[in-house]
Amino acid sequence: MREKSIAVIVVAAGRGERASANGESEPKQYRRVDGVAVLERTIDAFLASPQVSQILTVIHADHGERYAALGLSDDRLLPPVIGGESRQSSVLAGLKALAPMRPDLVLIQDAARPFVSTALIGDVVAVLAQLDGALPALPVTDTVKRSLDGQLVATTEDRNQLFAAQTPQGFRFSQIFSAHMRASTVRRQFTDDAEIAEWAGLRVGMVMGDRNNIKITHPEDFVRAERIIHGDSLMETRVGTGFDVHSFEPGDVVWLGGVRIPYKFKLNGHSDSDVALHALTDAILGAIGEGDIGVHFPPSDMQWKGAASTIFLEHAGKLVTERGGRIVNLDVTIVCEGPRIAEHVPAMQGVIAATLGIATSRIAIKATTSERLGFIGREEGIVAMASASVEVPRVD
């Protein structure tokens, strides 16, 4: 029985502008990760698979010299073809170029996914023995909200039915070629090739994706790519601490951990006086050497009067992300005689997690009293202490 021929289309026709940073003008597929261009890594991943018969790269019309400069050479590597204005039209250009060769199967791969494994390629190909199409996908672990206007939540999706698609997406060549030709005649842009296959009535299966099979889209993804290559050797862990205290004044509500808690007093301060989030923000800022809240949000600036302290916390989290880092864990201790904290801890964890984009399992919130000693014992105010553990790229 003749072994099936498998062609690969590597889609590299985009300008790659979203991944640019600090004046970087090189398209992301030609930028280097650990000395090797992203596109070259992607092509090499398929050359490493003995199942692959041919590889065709679809490039932008302006990138001919960049592609040639990669110096790629292999008997299975076909001359590149020029793509279109959209990903969909670029894939169709690749399919048309392969048509005279009549491959049995075709794998369609984003150039910006340089870490596809030989095992994942094999898993996708295996499904094509039974189905018309296949793609790797990962279960969605975050809670997903649907909104009609980007502001109000309309509904919460059942994440047990949601999966994040990856590439390579594999198909029987004649079927996906026909589906793409039909799709090119309708006034609609499809998000990926599997959607076109679904629209055309083809049966598409899924295999378990790979969390390292990332798509490089934003500048911080290059940091993650380096980490995949080198492991954690390029990262270092830093720890910051925060401390804050606010006195009570007449009122009926306190804000703690981003949660509104009815009480016989309120806290005195320039913003909403959320002593827990202030300490936590200072801990994160301290871990990355960025001073304290007062540096970024001076109390002399009236725009912050009465402001929600989640604004300060979100800013600190963004500074970590901009450095290519991540928050490992947060620990907050609130010291007060009242209000009672324990029943509000899950809500506080939820607010902090949503503000920083991390899991609630990375957030610890504890409460204690001062055993009726000192100003806390006299119910004159609240103290909060916090620590933050943050991973950031190593700076030698």
UniProtKB/TrEMBL annotation:
Annotated InterPro entries: IspD, IspD/F, IspD/TarI, MECDP_synthase, MECDP_synthase_sf, Nucleotide-diphossugar_trans
Binding site for 4-CDP-2-C-methyl-D-erythritol 2-phosphate: 244-246, 270-271, 292-294, 368-371, 375, 378
Sequence positions that bind a divalent metal cation: 244, 246, 278
Gene3D superfamilies in the cross-refs: 2-C-methyl-D-erythritol 2,4-cyclodiphosphate synthase, Spore Coat Polysaccharide Biosynthesis Protein SpsA, Chain A
Site (Positions MEP for the nucleophilic attack): 159, 215
Region (2-C-methyl-D-erythritol 4-phosphate cytidylyltransferase): 1-237
Domain 2-C-methyl-D-erythritol 2,4-cyclodiphosphate synthase residues, every copy: 238-390
Reaction equation(s) it catalyzes: 4-CDP-2-C-methyl-D-erythritol 2-phosphate = 2-C-methyl-D-erythritol 2,4-cyclic diphosphate + CMP; 2-C-methyl-D-erythritol 4-phosphate + CTP + H(+) = 4-CDP-2-C-methyl-D-erythritol + diphosphate
EC number: 2.7.7.60, 4.6.1.12
GO molecular function annotation: 2-C-methyl-D-erythritol 2,4-cyclodiphosphate synthase activity; 2-C-methyl-D-erythritol 4-phosphate cytidylyltransferase activity; metal ion binding
Cofactor needs: a divalent metal cation
Gene Ontology process terms (BP): isopentenyl diphosphate biosynthetic process, methylerythritol 4-phosphate pathway; terpenoid biosynthetic process
Keywords: Isoprene biosynthesis, Lyase, Metal-binding, Multifunctional enzyme, Nucleotidyltransferase, Transferase
UniProt region (2-C-methyl-D-erythritol 2,4-cyclodiphosphate synthase), positions on chain: 238-396
Protein task: Bifunctional enzyme that catalyzes the formation of 4-diphosphocytidyl-2-C-methyl-D-erythritol from CTP and 2-C-methyl-D-erythritol 4-phosphate (MEP) (IspD), and catalyzes the conversion of 4-diphosphocytidyl-2-C-methyl-D-erythritol 2-phosphate (CDP-ME2P) to 2-C-methyl-D-erythritol 2,4-cyclodiphosphate (ME-CPP) with a corresponding release of cytidine 5-monophosphate (CMP) (IspF).
UniProt-listed PANTHER family: 2-C-METHYL-D-ERYTHRITOL 2,4-CYCLODIPHOSPHATE SYNTHASE, CHLOROPLASTIC
Protein family (similarity comment): In the C-terminal section; belongs to the IspF family.
Protein name per its UniProtKB record: Bifunctional enzyme IspD/IspF
Organism: Devosia epidermidihirudinis
Recorded name of the encoding gene: ispDF
